[in-house]
Specification:
about 10% helix; about 25% strand
Length: about 80
């Protein structure tokens, strides 16, 4: 059975790295509240991923921003996770 997408995958945009051309950011803007622990659990098996959950959604009033960074696809950058 296929894995169901997490509830925070809504109004999703993928941003490519300018230097590698590969996906470096998956940006989600769900309408409902998001538990940062849920995001961390989802990405925990992938060491190159970090996540931020914040109130900075661009989609519309009251949307959140869920940023999932893939540092393996960013050139020469190492970043710490922020919650």
């Amino acid at each position: 059975m296929p894995r169901q997408a997490a509830g925070f995958y809504d109004h999703t945009t993928t941003w490519l790295s300018r230097t590698t051309g590969r996906p470096a950011l998956v940006f989600n803007q769900p309408y409902k509240p998001v538990d940062p622990a849920e995001v961390q659990e989802l990405i925990s098996e992938y060491p190159s991923l970090t996540a931020e959950v914040g109130p900075e959604g661009w989609y519309g009033f009251g949307t959140l921003g869920v940023y999932i960074w893939n540092h393996g696809n960013r050139a020469g950058a190492v970043w710490a996770a922020r919650y």
